[in-house]
């Protein structure tokens, strides 16, 4: 078994990386000891978080010099997402913070005119004729607001586009730096990790459809969990059992799910944290991004979820009651890691429709104006809005499109439409209304449709999805 040393930046999704390499027969050890880094046979510089926080941790503990020494000596290095940015000289995300300087250049914010953070799957274009050892063209999972926009000299570069071209991956010698998350990029990412690790990978990759780069629309199965079991109801009530979370997640990934959302629906009402064992089991079962919510009240709660296997954390009740939480999470982990869940219910009266935000699993009123709360939440640090129509939840009558359009128009971050999806036409309607992703639960749990089936139907309407 190969041993890999993971540099502990204090803000990474380490469980996702460990699970990915365990599937390839490798064992990971996390360390903050510079000498262990210097003596490593292979190094991983992981990435979830903000540039300034991670850079400060590297420099304060002597890890920055140790990583540079290891690279100079030729130690193979894998840098993931924020890890790639940390190899650079700096980032506009944290002016004044100093990177490792291994890659020349400054990471800049993605341009206006597109939704930022750049969340979801996008095409990676390998350098033509360059003969890269690790990176092939394919579709990978991204979660970034900043990127390196120019090709550094002396590196083989792969590209992607979100508003403008930016560096998707770099390689030189034994160093592979990915702006995307190979550990969350399904079979494509697994094959890339195998090439970097130097082990055989038997699984063949599907043929890549011909299309230009651009973020793809996502189909996201949702696992509402109570007492370690998936449940589903109507208007958040009359819950019924829908299976084991890990088994459901693995089945949906096999069907083509772009990510999984796991919500502990009893955590807030019971005033407890999400059950971490469930998160660990789901993470071990899948190779795509995992968003986890329920009972997150502090940055420490979020850190525990990341350590257990989450890649993003979802907050609802605690954020309404203390909005400063969103900024605290964004500062510690980056906006791309913070999902603001809003359960919106129509309020009667008035010439135009209005919605209030509910909390405690839909049991209490939280904010009088759900659209205004979405705007405030994004300004405070939420990198994505998980928008559930309380009125439509579990009805299979279609999403509240007026609500969806109102929130999409109010924010510049990605929006996930949730509640009411009953057939493929409803999914297409939600995308047409501006959703970046659509959550599905009942229609999948009851076996009435599959992720593959839904994707095929919306692709036939010209909506770009990962096949």
Account of the 3D structure:
- This protein is of the alpha/beta class.
- It has 16 helices and 24 strands.
- The strands form 4 sheets. It has an 8-stranded parallel β-barrel, surrounded by 8 helices. Strands 2-1-3-4-12-11-10 form a 7-stranded mixed beta sheet, sandwiched between helices. It has a 3-stranded mixed beta sheet with strand order 5-6-9.
- The longest helix has 12 residues.
Task: Give a topology summary.
Layout: E1 2-7, H1 14-22, E2 26-31, H2 34-38, E3 43-45, H3 51-60, H4 63-72, E4 77-80, H5 82-87, E5 90-91, E6 106-109, E7 118-124, E8 138-144, E9 146-147, E10 156-161, E11 165-172, E12 175-178, H6 186-197, E13 218-226, E14 229-234, E15 237-243, H7 245-254, E16 260-264, H8 276-285, E17 290-293, H9 299-308, E18 312-315, H10 317-321, H11 324-333, E19 338-347, E20 354-359, E21 364-367, H12 370-380, E22 384-389, H13 401-410, E23 415-418, H14 424-432, E24 437-440, H15 442-445, H16 451-460
Summary?
This protein is an alpha/beta fold. It has helices spanning 14-22, 34-38, 51-60, 63-72, 82-87, 186-197, 245-254, 276-285, 299-308, 317-321, 324-333, 370-380, 401-410, 424-432, 442-445, 451-460, and strands at residues 2-7, 26-31, 43-45, 77-80, 90-91, 106-109, 118-124, 138-144, 146-147, 156-161, 165-172, 175-178, 218-226, 229-234, 237-243, 260-264, 290-293, 312-315, 338-347, 354-359, 364-367, 384-389, 415-418, 437-440.
């Amino acid at each position: 078994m190969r041993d890999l040393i993971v540099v502990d930046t204090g803000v990474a999704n380490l469980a996702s990386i460990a699970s990915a390499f365990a599937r390839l027969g490798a064992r990971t050890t996390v360390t903050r000891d510079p000498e262990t880094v210097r003596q490593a046979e292979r190094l991983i510089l992981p990435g979830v978080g903000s540039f300034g926080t991670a850079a400060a941790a590297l420099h304060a503990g002597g890890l920055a010099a140790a990583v540079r020494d290891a690279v100079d000596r030729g130690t193979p290095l894998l840098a993931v997402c924020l890890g790639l940015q940390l190899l650079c000289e700096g980032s506009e995300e944290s002016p004044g913070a100093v990177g490792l300087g291994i890659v020349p250049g400054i990471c800049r914010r993605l341009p206006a005119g597109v939704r930022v953070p750049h969340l979801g799957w996008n095409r990676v274009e390998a350098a033509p004729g360059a003969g890269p050892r690790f990176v092939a063209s394919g579709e990978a999972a991204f979660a970034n607001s900043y990127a390196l926009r120019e090709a550094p000299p002396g590196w083989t570069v792969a590209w992607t586009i979100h508003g403008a071209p930016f560096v998707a991956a770099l390689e030189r010698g034994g160093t592979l730096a990915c702006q995307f998350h190979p550990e969350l990029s399904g079979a494509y990412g697994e094959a890339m990790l195998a090439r970097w690790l130097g082990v055989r990978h038997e699984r063949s990759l599907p043929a890549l459809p011909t299309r230009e780069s651009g973020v793809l629309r996502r189909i996201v199965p949702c696992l509402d969990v109570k007492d370690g079991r998936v449940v589903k109801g109507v208007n958040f009530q009359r819950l019924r059992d829908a299976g084991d979370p890990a088994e459901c997640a693995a089945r949906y990934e096999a069907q083509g799910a772009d990510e999984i959302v796991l919500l502990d629906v009893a955590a807030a009402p019971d005033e407890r944290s999400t059950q971490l064992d469930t998160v660990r089991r789901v993470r071990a079962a899948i190779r795509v991004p995992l968003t986890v919510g329920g009972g997150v009240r502090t940055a420490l709660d979020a850190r525990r979820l990341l350590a257990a296997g989450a890649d993003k954390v979802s907050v609802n009740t605690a954020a309404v009651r203390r909005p400063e939480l969103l900024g605290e999470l964004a500062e510690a982990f980056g906006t791309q890691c913070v999902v603001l869940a809003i359960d919106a219910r129509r309020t009667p009266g008035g010439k135009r429709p209005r919605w209030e935000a509910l909390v405690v699993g839909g049991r209490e009123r939280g904010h009088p104006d759900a659209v205004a709360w979405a705007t405030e939440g994004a300004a405070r640090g939420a990198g994505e809005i998980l928008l559930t129509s309380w009125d439509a939840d579990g009805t299979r009558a279609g999403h509240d499109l007026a609500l969806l359009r109102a929130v999409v128009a109010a924010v510049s971050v990605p929006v996930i439409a949730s509640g009411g999806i009953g057939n493929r036409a409803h999914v297409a309607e939600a995308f047409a209304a501006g959703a970046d992703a659509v959550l599905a639960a009942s229609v999948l749990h009851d076996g009435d449709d599959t992720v593959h089936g839904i994707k095929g139907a919306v692709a036939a309407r010209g909506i770009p999805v990962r096949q």
